[in-house]
Structures are given as structure tokens and as C-alpha cells.
Amino acid sequence: MKLNRRQFLFLSSLSTLATGVLAGTITRQHDKINLVDLATATTPAKKDLLLRFVSVADTGTGAKGQYAVARAMKLYHQRNPYDLVVLAGDNIYNNGEIEKVNAVFERPYQHLLQQGVKFHACLGNHDIRTDNGNPQVKYPGFNMNGQRYYTFRRGGVQFFALDTNNNADWKKQILWLETELSLSNAPWKVVFGHHPIYSSGVYGSSQSFIKTFTPLFKKYGVQLYINGHEHSYERTRSIDGTTYLICGAGAGNRPVGRSVWSEYSTSNLSFAAYEVYSDRIEVCGIGTNHRVFDRGVIRVRDF
Predict the structure, then answer these.
(1) Is the dihedral of CA 41, 44, 48, 50 positive or negative?
(2) Could you tell me if residue 266 is left (phi over 0), alpha (psi between -120 and 50 degrees) or otherwise beta?
(3) What is the pLDDT of residues 129-170, one digit of tens each?
(4) Burial of 207 by CB count in 10 Å (0-12 exposed, 13-18 middle, 19+ buried)?
(5) Residue 194's closest CA among 157, 144, 145?
(6) What pTM value is reported for the model?
(7) pLDDT in tens, 206-238
(8) Nearest residue to 284 via CA among 56, 24, 38, 34
(9) Which phi and psi angles does 31 have, rounded to 5°?
């Protein structure tokens, strides 16, 4: 059948449109598959991967929400091995009683602990209700080594744990933090504490913390700050070179909004996973359905 020019152009446009729709469908399906695979499927070894770790906070209830997140962390570990967890405070509810540590820490994370995964903790506001948190500071499983604030290094990543509670020795701690940051030659600097600096959750941002910490983070090149306290997940865009990530939905959840600097926020039970490379950190938010609901990239900076 011969077609005139008008018929040919019309049919060609229909073909192009159908191809575009099909391609869009395939792309969306492929993205959905990728979201599941990142959380549950075995990924090939990445020769340029420097470190993989996860973070979670506000965990220590021993209730079903904590166990649901712990199971997701276990499955992710089986598919994507890691040996470090940043535990960002409120490790034992409701009052930091160390006698509960088996029920709210050792049992929920039994698999990870048996596999040699190290949890590095900081103190939350609930943790200091018993003896100002001292039993937790001394507890070997939290790897605080008797210090309320401390630093440790994993390859090219240096971590700085803070005591962000109201009764902290702020004068001494801030001096310590600036000294340690200034001495660090690590290409990646990650600070973690319990309380938020930027937040769209129930408690909101802390103007005093913004004033105290952000100049130091900018001056010394801190690329990531991790915290809990808000029972939600929120990742900011880079603010003066620093990404702020809340991972406090480790056992329970509360509402969270969005701010102009928010990249992603959700109240779903979850934890965060990080893959560190020489030039970037790839961040994932993972829910109890084992799906990756958020993906972001943090870039290294030259100073």
C-alpha cells in the first residue's frame, strides 16, 4: 500500500509515541527492579569501594519496630556485607538502664554481632537518665572506650562521635572537636551525634547547633553529619559542603515535613546505608520492606 506524505508522517509520529511510552514503561520497571536489588540482591564486588557502613538511631525499645529494622539490616548485610554501624543515640529506652542491654541491643542485632559487626554509639537524651549514661560509655558493645566523645578511623574515613546532650562539657568538647578536625588528614570526615542540626521533624532545626557546628564543618571539610532524635529519615542537600542525615526511625516513627534544603524525608521505619569511594559517598535509605526508598550522592571536596 502506498502512503502519501501526510499519511506517512502521521503513522511515523504514532510509532515514535508508542516507542517512547514503551521505553518509559521499561525504564520505570527497571528502576523498580534496581530499588529492590540494592537492598536484597547480591551485588558484585566493587574493587573501588573503600568502605560500606550503615547508621540507625533511637533503637533501644526491644519492640517489634526495632526488630523489623534489625531484620532489614541483617538482610542487607547478607547481600551487601558491612562491619560498621553508627548507632546515633537513644540506645536504651526509656531511661538508659544498662541491665536492659541484652533485650534492646544484643538480641535484636544478634546476627550482626555474631558476624563481627562493630557498633559505635553516642549518647542520646534517654541514655543519660541513668548515671548520666556512664554505664553505656563503659559497655564494650558500644565501642565508646570510656569516652563520651571520641574519634576513630576506617581507611580514608574518620568518624567523630559527639555528646550532644544539654549537660555535655561543651567548652572542652568543641575545643577537642576543632583540634581533631584540624589534625585529620582523612579525605572523608563524618561527624555523628544524637541531636539534629537541620531538621524538618517534630523538634526542628537547632539554631544554636547551626551557629556552633556549621562554621567548623565548613572550615575543616566535614562532608556528613549523622543524627537521630527525630524518629524519621531525612537527608538534606549539601549545605556549605555538608550533608545532614537523620536516621532516627530505627524502632518507632513520628511525622516529618520538608524544608527548602530537604532532598528526601519520610517517617517510615528505616536505616541508612553508605558506600564510600574515593570521590563520593553513595547513600541509601532502606525500609523494613527491604526497598531502597532514597538514593543520594555526597561528593568529596578539595580544601
Answers:
(1) positive
(2) beta
(3) 999 999 999 999 999 999 999 999 999 999 999 999 999 999
(4) exposed
(5) 144
(6) 0.87
(7) 999 999 999 999 999 999 999 999 999 999 999
(8) 38
(9) -60, -40
